[in-house]
Design goal:
Number of domains: 2
Strand order of the largest sheet: 11-7-8-17-16
Distance between the termini: 20 Å
Order of helices and strands: HEEEEEEEEEEEEEEEEEEEEH
Number of strands: 20
């Protein structure tokens, strides 16, 4: 009887993780470049009361055995790097990646972070940065007298300066990709850093070697589907209630045992 109490408790904890994950997805439904997460679970080990195929004396062995499961545990929360919807902004420094790849950002400590958030701006020096002021890598500086900024699908950055008739190329945006993007470590603020699980970053020109192309004047929105998340939220809630009911039922059975001597 005590076994069922602990088993149901693991179920409640697992469903809490499910609901926490779903809540985070819903909270970021309008976050640029956000990638939804999926909670994954596995059953715990089993208490074996009789092994399959083992008999006693002259009896034949049991074809199935008797094994009682001891609950569930979370095994992973996986980022799903499917393509999100695109939103047109008309801003020359808003960029979206159509396909695989990440923009490269320089963190304050000099290390490199990776992001799908392409909402860029220029700082007081004309350097292209993200909303937190972190530089886009390779570093690109827009001249102060630039009239227009054009960014090609391959990441070439050209500007038309006042008094000129022909645009000048001022930089080249490179994208990075990983053999296992789900293995990246999330820093928050839509930034990731590489890990042993993700593998090393492979950089290159957009549109080549499996990298996606860059679309100017657009941003990639979250890939969260609210219908799916609401369904998962309801499923997690009902499963949590069912596990709670299992604990209540076990408690009532224990109460019945305690009253046998009355």
């Amino acid at each position: 009887m005590i076994r069922s109490l602990y088993t149901a408790a693991t179920g409640m904890l697992a469903q809490q993780t499910q609901i926490d994950t779903t809540s985070n997805n819903i909270a970021n439904v309008n976050t640029i470049g956000y990638k939804k997460e999926r909670a994954e679970f596995a059953d715990l080990f089993y208490q074996v009361m009789e092994y399959a195929g083992v008999g006693s004396g002259t009896t034949l062995g049991s074809p199935t055995g008797i094994e009682v499961g001891l609950g569930v545990r979370p095994t992973a929360i996986t980022k799903q790097f499917t393509q999100g919807n695109f939103k047109e902004t008309g801003n020359n420094l808003d960029l979206a990646i159509t396909g695989n790849g990440f923009f490269q950002i320089e963190l304050p400590d000099g290390s490199t972070a990776y992001t799908r958030n392409g909402a860029f701006k220029v700082d007081g020096n004309g350097t292209v940065v993200n909303a937190d002021g972190y530089k886009l890598l390779p570093e690109i500086t827009i001249p102060p007298n630039a009239v227009t900024v054009a960014i090609g699908t391959d990441g070439t950055v050209s500007v038309l300066q006042a008094g000129d008739t022909d645009p000048n190329q001022v930089g080249q945006i490179e994208l990075a990709n990983f053999i296992n993007p789900a293995g990246l470590h999330s820093l928050g603020d839509n930034n990731y850093i590489q890990t042993v699980a993700s593998g090393d970053a492979v950089t290159g020109i957009a549109g080549l070697e499996g990298l996606g192309q860059i679309k100017q004047g657009f941003v990639e929105m979250s890939n969260v589907q609210l219908v799916e998340e609401m369904t998962d939220l309801i499923t997690g809630q009902r499963a949590y209630e069912a596990n709670s009911k299992a604990i209540t039922t076990s408690d009532e059975m224990l109460q019945t045992v305690n009253q046998l001597k009355r």
